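Hi support team,

I've been running sequence recovery on a batch of backbones for a student project. Most finish fine, but this one hangs at about 90% for roughly twenty minutes before it completes. I'm not sure whether the input is malformed or the queue is just slow. I've pasted the structure tokens below so you can try to reproduce it. Let me know if you need the job ID as well.

Thanks,
M.K.
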């Protein structure tokens, strides 16, 4: 009797935690997406995406088109706002191969670990977590959570949300004071975006070591610069390595670096960490 109960429990656990039929359905979606995916988010097969992720992709594409038209209208030679690199993996240079790993299923949601490889410039491997949701009876990719060391941002949705952060464009030079006067006290001037942004809406945030204040971070579209905002000041940092940024001035300057999926903002002069944030 005890043996029958034990076997029944094992079978039930297997059905709920590792249903092979569900795994096959999920793997088909992931394969269908990544076999065709070549890097640019504008070309993804949106039929394989969730409604919310597909909507973000559409909005980002529309924003790119709008930016290009606005610059063309004023005959500007500035580069239009655009997302560069692959946002469906940690590595902006994309991947050359992948292997599907462990799958976790919880009702109508699933999370799949996928190991990616890029051998274009040496051999580089990393893992990302693909999140899926069941909509109208079909599995759809809902997000990609970055696990790689070189990732900038938390996930695909995070990158898209940051790109779509509202910006009030200013045609002439402006400082934070003018930005606040023209757009409201909730806005701050961004040197990277060349406009007024609502800092509190930025998805990438760090917390002070004493847990009393927040620093918000935004990256340029080409990821060559980062801008950090605190309650008292802001800095523009230049990219120094794959996951490290620094201000030009050492005196009063700061660094921003990522180690073990944790970002640290610190003082250049003594290396002291003043803000940190886990990417999970």
């Amino acid at each position: 009797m005890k043996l029958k109960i034990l076997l029944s429990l094992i079978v039930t656990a297997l059905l709920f935690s590792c249903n092979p039929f569900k795994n096959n359905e999920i793997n088909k979606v992931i394969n269908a997406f990544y076999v065709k995916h070549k890097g640019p988010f504008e070309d993804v097969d949106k039929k394989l995406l969730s409604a919310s992720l597909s909507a973000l992709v559409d909005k980002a594409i529309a924003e790119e088109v709008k930016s290009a038209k606005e610059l063309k209208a004023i005959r500007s030679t500035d580069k239009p706002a655009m997302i560069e690199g692959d946002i469906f993996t940690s590595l902006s240079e994309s991947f050359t191969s992948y292997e599907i790993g462990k799958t976790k299923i919880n009702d109508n949601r699933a999370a799949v670990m996928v190991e990616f490889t890029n051998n274009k410039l040496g051999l580089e491997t990393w893992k990302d977590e693909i999140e899926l949701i069941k909509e109208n009876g079909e599995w759809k990719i809902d997000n990609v959570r970055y696990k790689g060391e070189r990732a900038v941002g938390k996930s695909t949705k995070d990158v898209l949300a940051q790109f779509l952060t509202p910006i009030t464009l200013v045609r002439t030079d402006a400082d934070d004071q003018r930005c606040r006067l023209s757009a409201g006290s909730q806005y701050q001037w961004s040197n990277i975006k060349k406009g007024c942004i609502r800092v509190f809406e930025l998805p990438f945030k760090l917390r002070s070591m004493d847990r009393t204040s927040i620093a918000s971070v935004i990256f340029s579209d080409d990821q060559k610069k980062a801008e950090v905002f605190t309650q008292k000041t802001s800095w523009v940092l230049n990219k120094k390595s794959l996951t490290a940024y620094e201000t030009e001035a050492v005196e009063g300057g700061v660094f921003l670096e990522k180690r073990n999926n944790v970002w640290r903002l610190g003082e250049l002069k003594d290396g002291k960490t003043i803000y940190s944030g886990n990417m999970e």
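--
Follow-up from support: It reproduced on our side and the slowdown came from queue contention, not your input. Residues 165-201 form one domain. No action needed from you.
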